[in-house]
């Protein structure tokens, strides 16, 4: 089963990619940097969800 953190993290990661691309289009270094930060946060949250889900699977056995 997919943990809610995996979903939210994936969404934040995608949003960060969009923000980074928009920053490149408009020439905003700040927006590009914020997009990269959002991607890193999203990836971390997604990985946390995966680990949490794996632990639940092992404990549930």
From TrEMBL:
InterPro entries documented for this protein: CsbD, YjbJ_sf
Domain CsbD-like: 5-57
SUPFAM superfamilies: Hypothetical protein YjbJ
Superkingdom field: Bacteria
Segments for region (Disordered): 40-61
Transmembrane segments: none
Protein family according to the UniProt entry: Belongs to the UPF0337 (CsbD) family.
Name listed for the protein in its UniProt record: CsbD family protein
Protein's organism: Aureimonas fodinaquatilis
